[in-house]
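Task: fold both queries, return tokens.
Query 1:
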Amino acid sequence: MMPMAVQATLIATIAVVGTAVVAFLVARWVRSSRDLGTAAGRATFEALHTASLAAPHLRHGLTPEGAARAARHLRGLLGCETLVITDTAQVLATDGAPLSPAPSSPNPSGPSPSSPMDLAAAALTARHTVVRRLDAGHAVFAPIIVQGRAAGAVGAYTTGADAAQVRAVTEVAAWVAAQVGLAELDESRTQLAEAEVRALRAQISPHFIYNSLNAIASFINTDPQRARSLVVEFADFTRYTFRRHGDFTTLAEELQAIDRYLLLEKARFGDRIRVRLQIAPEVLGTEIPFLSLQPLVENAVRHGLESKDGGGLVTIAAHDSGNYAEITVEDDGVGMDPETLRSVLAGTTEGLHVGLRNVDVRLRQVYGEGHGLVVDTAPGAGTLITLRVPKTRPGNGGPTAGPQS
């Protein structure tokens, strides 16, 4: 077992090293372990490797299952007899030797001063590591503080508790807090993405539903067959936009929804809206974020053509571009001022082009900052919107998204 002072220093380093960096270093260690002949070098990568094994189990925050699996690795990192992980209400996991029954409390109805939750509560209240002498050694409990909020504690039961051991437990708790913080950030991003999809649906529903129903009603007496056909298209479109499963859809499915949308809009505008499709068959199966293309077409109709005398043309194109599918939505409508466009994409202009802003934000969240919308426009010159989507979506393996060229 490595000296405790070395352990504490290594764990302090691990607490500020990202999971990706840990994995990278471990991979390099596997390839070139023969170059790490010193005890310190081997100990460093042993500790990093142990941390990389524990990290995935905390990916969903402090859960009993994740804590139990992480505790096994973290106990090896600390070299203690027993390791405990708690949240603020209960012990989530215990790994190692069974805990001895706590000595009787002077007040039989009160908590034992050495029970895990009592020690965790003491650390959380003090917001720093606490040490308690026990009959068979010491208990060292450090709080897990996530963005200023007490989330739980890491406790180590050991035969000896010198300054190095105390520091080691403190740094492990800080590392656990970092992993929990990352898990909460991922959850926040997911909730934000879901909220933005709800915002897109809310944008679609009052404006589009009202106009569509009016258009359908106008044909009931004059052309009942067309009215019935439009009702079916309306039902299929709304079923697609309000579905409750899946963050992604295929380009083919989104284009089918767009076709229904345009049929309903043509019922209102007649020949004032013309549509041209230029779709390469090989990109139809590309998975794209749900409702990432339809709002762009709606933007072209509502803000590009609706206010233009005589209407105009919407061109939807998609073609293969190496590891990407490049998709464009172009209209020859009224266009917009580039400064207004910048304000829209920055979120400082409310009410107009909401769908444009939401799609841009979602693309950047999914694929990275280099993969937002590219918009070319000017007053009276129409609008061209381009998005480049990796053919393999995140989490499915295959080519990964690189910087947008």
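Query 1 returned. Query 2:
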Amino acid sequence: MKVIVCGAGQVGSNIARYLASEGNDVTVVDQSPALIEKIGETLDVQALVGFASHPDTLDQAGAADADMIIAVTLADEVNMVACQVAHVLFKIPTKIARVRNQSYLKPQWAELFNRDRLPIDVIISPEIEVARGIARRLQVPGAFDMIPLADGKVRVIGVLCSANCPILHTPLRQLTGLFPDLNIEVVAIVRNDRAIIPTSDDQMLPGDEVYFVCETGHVTRAMAAFGHEESEARRIIILGGGNIGLFLAEEIEAKSPQVTARLIEVNRPRAELVSQRLSRSMVLHGDALDPDILEEANVRSTETVVAVTNDDEVNILASLLAKRYGCQRAITLINKTQYSPLVSNLGIDAVVSPRAITVSTILQHVRRGRIRAVHSLRDGFAEVIEAEALETSTLLNTPLKNVKLPSGVIIGAVIRGDDVMIPKPTLVIKPKDRVIILAAAGQIRKVEKIFAVRLEFF
């Protein structure tokens, strides 16, 4: 597939890297010569300096025979116009745009993006996606990641194995015997920043980050098996009243009436605006690094602090300060990838990467076939994919013990109607089953050969 990526920032470069790694024809456009030079040297893509919404630039990028345009520049207006130019002049079939300004996304202006006005097929709003990602993490205390799949029937959970984890040094094949009624499947282990797609003989060690697939009704028991029995937060402090902080507070107010949220914002006009938008949450004007403000927010009695300012350093330091003053748990937004390996050692419980969440959201729409969901894990070492098995799939009508899956591919769960089945050797996949799989980077093409749903990374 031929794809034009507009924008060579963190999100654009990562999308380009994903697509190029699977052999797609990718052209990246950006008006920054420095970014274009960097991406041209590091990725197997065409790199073009130019203004992404200009017809001449898109023509030079090969828009005449492109299959998709992904517009993720820093300017909403450039992204929207690029999609319109791509549609009107070049008839590009699929158009994806990142739109940050919420004024464009209000329900009363929904007709703006009709096909005969601004013909954008998929609109990505990073701030809303990040706020939802944080809200999901809040639902499972003790987890650093939580991905709902199959209409909420299944969850992929990421947990840290501490020294008191009850199932350390236990071969994974023995977990079924230890917990016969517990529907879980370990699908990935990150050890010393190295990703492992485990076999049945692998064991979990102290300090491992483990991803497992679990039936939603078994999450509490599964977390206890990993030594995590934290109670769900009832008191939360949100540091930062930007769009992410505001959307998170609104999400809490709408869906978690049992939770009390306090929000701290350093900019007075913004704090006043946020206060007007919220009904139950207390908004404080002040610096998140000011101990007096944290005390005023009652940090000592708070279970979780969520740091989502636009400054990574402030988020990290404020999270650590809040924990020092008595907060039990910290969820911290970090944009700079070089900080990610450091923060777990500092005592931060969960890191939220806007780039990774945005990339996952875009990938879900890049995939073709019967793909219902795609989530990238830890800077792309693997992907969790939810797909529907069609009648022509080679997985059908064969016990899983006789299916030769490629190295680095694990089936985590099979959903048939309302039943969630953790894969066993005798399980036979049937048409229309939903299959949750984890595929290591570079294995998507092999997965495509197994699935007639064609998990294609075009």
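Both queries returned. Flag for query 2: The two ends are 5 Å apart (CA to CA).
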